[in-house]
């Protein structure tokens, strides 16, 4: 597949339309992103963005729930959605000849959901099952607990799913109010990638979103208060201790995030990383150990997860801290940086081999207010990171004494 031609058009009211044509494919992916997620909810609305995402699939003014599920599947396509902290997404993938049908379905979900109060109780139970599933999955739950202490009292610290109490209290009128205020032209981004024609997509978007009003809610999230290092233990039965160590970092727009991504890759991004080699291969202390990073509009996060036997947890955490401290003080070896660059560049290109990967990249750049970069420009940006840049970033954020640690498992 070639790099593809990028086009952007802004329609009246601030509705953005982005496309990238990819040669050599017969498929297309299309999605609508709403600049509203769990971080924009009021305290009484926890979980509302996610519940609303579920409810739009229960029927629109033109389609029943069964019609929604059937219309693209009978064409060999797929339809799904997700809610994040800063946006909600509805997307589909189809053969190129069915792209307008896919956009019709996705726009129908966004523009004209019925939000039937008679179906709310049923879908509420589905979400409560999601919450129960997280509660019964300790390697998921420990991340929820870590978010709470990493962002205390801040919207980023609340579960995207909400709590049992908040979900049970939400009513159809709450979802309708959010839909009426947030699902408007100024909050929408429409993107398509694959075998697409930009002018035709713009024409379809203008028609399918004609009835959407101007405006939209603010997507700004308050800056979180300063973070104090801390350690928290949550007891529950089990054969493993699950530990997440982490800290706050930079926003998605901050150029230092590239150095952080390379650091994360070298420290815990694969089988060749420091933590995998030390914690698993050399010491046999864990099956799963890895680093992670998240970047938002105003801030970000970097951390490490490990799952180990309760009696080995102290040692595993100490080994991780030692490696983090060493990198924060000494930086990476030149060979480690080069290996990390190769890994990140390879993963980037492989991810963009799919039209879904292209679609997601288009939308994220628009949502974060970043200029479009070609693949070659992105790879050059990664290649340009110096050993000194990674050393400065490591000294700033990888000192484990400044991190927050959460441990979930049996007392030991």
Report what the structure shows:
- The structure is a single chain.
- By secondary structure, this protein is an alpha+beta fold.
- It has two domains: 5-208, Metalloenzyme, LuxS/M16 peptidase-like (Cytochrome Bc1 Complex, Chain A, domain 1, 2-Layer Sandwich); 230-409, Cytochrome Bc1 Complex, Chain A, domain 1, CATH 3.30.830.10.
- 44% of the residues lie in helices and 19% in strands.
- The protein is built from 15 helices and eleven strands.
- The protein has helices at residues 48-55, 65-73, 99-111, 117-135, 138-150, 164-169, 172-182, 198-208, 257-268, 274-282, 313-330, 334-351, 355-367, 375-383, 387-397; strands spanning 5-10, 16-21, 27-34, 78-83, 88-95, 188-194, 230-235, 241-248, 288-295, 300-308, 404-409.
- The strands form two sheets. A six-stranded mixed sheet has the order 1-2-6-3-5-4, with helices on both faces. Strands 7-11-8-10-9 form a five-stranded mixed sheet, sandwiched between helices.
- A hairpin with a 4-residue loop joins β4 and β5.
- α1 (48-55) crosses α7, α3 (99-111) runs parallel beside α8 (198-208) and α11 crosses α15 (387-397).
- The longest helix has 19 residues, at 117-135.
- The chain is globular.
- The mean pLDDT is 95.
């Amino acid at each position: 597949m070639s790099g593809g031609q990028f086009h952007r058009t802004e329609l009246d009211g601030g509705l953005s339309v982005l496309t990238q044509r990819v040669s050599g494919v017969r498929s297309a992916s299309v999605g609508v992103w709403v600049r509203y997620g769990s971080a924009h909810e009021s305290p009484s609305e926890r979980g509302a963005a996610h519940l609303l995402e579920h409810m739009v699939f229960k029927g629109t003014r033109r389609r029943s729930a069964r019609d929604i599920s059937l219309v693209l599947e009978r064409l060999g396509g797929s339809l799904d959605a997700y809610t994040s902290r800063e946006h909600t997404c509805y997307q589909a993938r189809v053969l190129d000849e069915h792209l307008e049908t896919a956009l019709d379905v996705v726009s129908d979900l966004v523009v004209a959901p019925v939000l039937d109060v008679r179906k709310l109780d049923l879908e509420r139970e589905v979400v409560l099952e999601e919450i129960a599933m997280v509660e019964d999955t300790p390697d998921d739950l420990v991340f929820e607990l870590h978010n709470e202490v990493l962002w205390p009292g801040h919207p980023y610290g609340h579960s995207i799913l909400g709590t049992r109490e908040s979900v049970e209290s939400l009513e159809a009128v709450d979802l309708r109010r959010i839909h009426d205020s947030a699902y408007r032209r100024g909050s929408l981004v429409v993107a398509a990638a694959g075998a697409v024609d930009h002018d035709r997509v713009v024409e379809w978007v203008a028609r399918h979103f004609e009835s959407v009003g101007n405006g939209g809610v603010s997507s700004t999230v308050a800056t979180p208060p300063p973070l104090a290092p801390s350690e928290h233990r949550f007891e529950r039965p089990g054969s493993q201790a699950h530990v997440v160590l982490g800290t706050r970092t930079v926003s998605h727009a901050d150029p230092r995030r590239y150095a952080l991504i390379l650091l994360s890759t070298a420290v815990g991004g694969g089988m060749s990383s420091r933590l995998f080699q030390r914690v698993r291969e050399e010491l046999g202390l864990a099956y799963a150990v890895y680093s992670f990073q998240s970047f938002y509009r105003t801030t970000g996060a970097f951390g490490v997860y490990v799952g180990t036997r309760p009696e080995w947890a102290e040692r595993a955490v100490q080994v991780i801290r030692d490696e983090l401290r060493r990198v924060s003080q000494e930086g990476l070896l030149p060979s480690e940086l080069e290996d990390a660059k190769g890994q990140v560049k390879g993963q980037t290109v492989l991810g963009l081999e799919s039209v879904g990967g292209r679609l997601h990249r288009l939308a994220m750049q628009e949502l974060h207010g970043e200029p479009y970069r070609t693949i070659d420009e992105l790879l050059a940006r990664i290649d340009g990171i110096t050993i000194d840049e990674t050393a400065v970033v490591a000294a700033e954020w990888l000192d484990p004494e400044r991190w927050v640690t959460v441990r979930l498992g049996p007392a030991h």
